[in-house]
Each structure stands twice: as structure tokens, then as C-alpha cells.
Write a structure and sequence with these properties.
Layout: H1 2-20, E1 28-41, H2 65-81, H3 84-87, E2 93-99, H4 102-109, H5 112-115, E3 119-123, E4 133-139, E5 143-151, E6 155-156, E7 164-165, E8 170-177, E9 180-188, H6 196-220, E10 226-231, H7 239-244, E11 247-248, E12 259-260, H8 263-268, E13 274-276, E14 279-281, E15 284-289, E16 301-307, E17 328-329, E18 332-333, E19 343-350
Parallel strand pairs: 1-2, 9-10, 11-12
Antiparallel strand pairs: 1-19, 2-4, 3-4, 5-8, 6-7, 8-9, 10-15, 12-15, 13-14, 16-19, 17-18
Length: 352
């Protein structure tokens, strides 16, 4: 316990020194913005309109109410701790993917570890065949939504141009974040099922839609503060991110109305958010607009981005030792968390 408080103190001390250097030791507000692929957070009841049969008590996964409640508790625990060692509180904003419906979100924010944080929910049912959606949770004391919309991604199968592929919407939420207008976009781009090359065109189409949304925000305000986050099912170096979304690795390369990807440097260091066949990928990313990278901290700016990969989120034994400690393997509940690590960034602002 002593070590835990010491670590929190050191984290806060380091933060103060790093940001205050050369700036007359000013103090800063700091808030966490996070994203988490929660790995199939389904309720335990059958939805006749989607392919959720496996996640029911009589389905292949034997998804019971007891298991559902355990999954909720674990997911809430993770969310409650993202960025906490610096901010000493839960994220101000968190984007989610692989959630089934509004009910699971309501059950999630009512878990003990999140209940007193008064999270609001923004969610739309998407056309995804499995019934999984994206959503945004926000601390009502910090963020007031003013506009939100689900943008449908219309794509077709490579082998049959008349066959539509139904996938997740891209959720855009605009609002006042502690008095400043910020736009958040939550993504879950098409998977690599069938192979990366064969499925690539789907993610390129997703990138084009995301860029179109971002450009429309820039057309209203070239200095817009935008955070697009999600499970992109591509790494920072893939063409969907680099060429079509046009996210840059270096801050100094940024011009007005462009995007910076702080996750690319983490990827180059060999870090990732999910593992497959002993290879790490960094599909979960936080990408931000030029305005958030400026050094004028009289309004909210980007400080740094991280992967939340605490020890309890890592599998400690067996074939998948070192991988994310997922909640379901081989038709059985493991008691784990997710097959993805969350990602997050800090926004900071000078205190007056």
C-alpha cells in the first residue's frame, strides 16, 4: 500500500517537472481520454435480430447472468483505473467498442467502481450483423454533448460487388469539454477476417469516411480540436492510417487541418495492444488534430499517449503467456478482461 501511494506521488511529481520546465512552474489541469475494446460485452439474453446466440445461457459460450456480471465488474475495474495514477480519478471521456446495446452500457456505468462518477452514455445501434456497436461514455461534470451522430460505413465484399458488408458506424460526438469545444470520433473498423490483404479495401473505405468526417469539421473551423480513436484493425504504419487518414508521426511535420498519431512511436518501439501468433499489433489508437498539439497551454492540449497494460491485464501462464488476459477462450470464460489493452492520452491546461 505504501509503495502504491509512493508511485502515485512520483508520477505526479514527474508530470509537474516535465510540463512545468521553462514555464515558471505553472500548475495544470489534467484529464484522461481513453479507448477500450472490451471484447464482446454482451448481455445474456437472445436478440432475435442479431447473431448473438453464442452469448446466451444455452449458446456455445454458455453466457450466463453470473458470467455477464463478472465481465461487467472486470470491465468497470479497468476503466476506473485508466490514467488514475496521474489524475487520481477515472477518465473524463472513454470510447468503447464491442458492446452489444445500451443495456450493457447502463449496467456498466452502474458498477460500484464507476457509479459515483456519473457517466453519461451516447450510443446508436449499428447494422453490424453480430450486434456489436461503438459508444462514448463521458463524465457529466466535465463534458456537455451538443451534437452527436452515427455515420454509416457502406462497403461491399471484394468477391461480390453487390453484397454489402454490414459493419460498425463511426460515432461523432461534439460538445463542451470543461468550457472548450472538442470533437470525439469513436471507431471500430472492419476486421482482418479472410486475411489482411483481402480485407484491406474495407479499412481503406473506413479511413476515407473518417477523413471525410474530419474534413467536414475542419470546414466549419480549421482550428477544431478533434480526437479520433478506436480499434482500427490496422497498425499506425498501414496505408489506411498513413495514406488515407493521413496521420503523421512527427509533430513538427504538422500543418493546419492535419492529424498527429502519437501511437506510431509506440508501435515503432515494439509495443502493442493485442497479440496474434507471437506478434504484437497496435490496432487501438488515439489520433489528434493539429490544434491539440500546440504548446499554448492556456487551453487544453495534448500531453502524452500511453497503453494501459498493467500486470493484471496480462496472461501469466500457458500458451498465451504475456498476451492480453482475455475474458473468453475456447468456449469458456476465463475470468479475464479483454483481448485488447486500452489506450489513452492526457489533455492538460494551465490553471488560472
Amino acid at each position: 500500500m505504501i509503495m502504491r501511494y509512493l508511485n502515485c506521488f512520483l508520477a505526479l511529481l514527474i508530470f509537474s517537472i516535465t510540463v512545468s520546465f521553462g514555464q515558471n512552474s505553472k500548475t495544470y489541469k489534467i484529464n484522461t481520454i481513453a479507448f477500450y475494446n472490451v471484447e464482446n460485452l454482451f448481455d445474456f439474453e437472445d436478440d432475435p435480430l442479431t447473431f448473438d446466440d453464442d452469448r446466451t445461457p444455452n449458446g456455445k459460450d454458455h453466457w450466463t447472468e453470473e458470467i455477464y456480471n463478472a465481465k461487467l465488474k472486470n470491465t468497470a475495474k479497468v476503466i476506473s483505473e485508466i490514467g488514475k495514477e496521474v489524475t487520481e480519478t477515472t477518465p473524463a471521456i472513454i470510447g468503447l467498442c464491442e458492446i452489444e446495446n445500451r443495456r450493457v452500457l447502463e449496467d456498466l456505468v452502474n458498477q460500484e467502481s464507476l457509479l459515483n462518477k456519473d457517466y453519461g452514455i451516447i450510443h446508436f445501434d449499428s447494422p453490424d450483423r453480430r450486434g456489436i456497436d461503438v459508444a462514448l461514455l463521458y463524465r457529466k461534470t466535465l463534458f456537455t454533448p451538443t451534437q452527436y451522430k452515427a455515420h454509416e460505413l457502406i462497403i461491399y465484399d471484394n468477391d461480390d460487388s453487390s453484397k454489402r458488408v454490414f459493419t460498425r458506424d463511426q460515432l461523432v460526438v461534439s460538445g463542451m469539454f470543461d468550457g472548450e469545444k472538442i470533437h470525439f470520433i469513436v471507431n471500430h473498423w472492419p476486421s482482418r477476417r479472410g486475411g489482411e490483404e483481402r480485407s484491406r479495401h474495407k479499412r481503406i473505405m473506413a479511413a476515407k469516411l473518417n477523413r471525410q468526417i474530419i474534413d467536414s469539421l475542419f470546414s466549419e473551423n480549421p482550428y477544431a480540436k478533434i480526437i479520433t480513436m478506436g480499434d482500427f484493425n490496422d497498425d499506425p504504419s498501414n496505408s489506411s492510417i498513413k495514406e488515407f487518414l493521413e496521420a503523421k508521426r512527427k509533430k513538427e511535420d504538422l500543418k493546419l487541418k492535419e492529424l498527429y498519431n502519437p501511437m506510431e512511436e509506440l508501435s515503432r518501439k515494439g509495443l502493442g495492444t493485442l497479440a496474434y501468433r507471437d506478434q504484437w499489433n497496435l490496432f487501438d489508437q488515439m489520433i489528434i488534430s493539429t490544434e491539440l498539439v500546440k504548446k499554448d497551454y492556456t487551453s487544453y492540449r495534448f500531453y502524452k499517449a500511453e497503453i494501459f497494460n498493467k500486470e493484471y491485464l496480462i496472461n501469466s501462464k500457458g500458451q498465451y503467456k504475456g498476451y492480453p488476459y482475455r475474458s473468453f477462450v475456447g468456449g469458456g470464460y476465463t475470468g479475464g478482461y479483454s483481448d485488447h489493452f486500452p489506450v489513452y492520452l492526457y489533455l492538460i491546461k494551465e490553471k488560472k
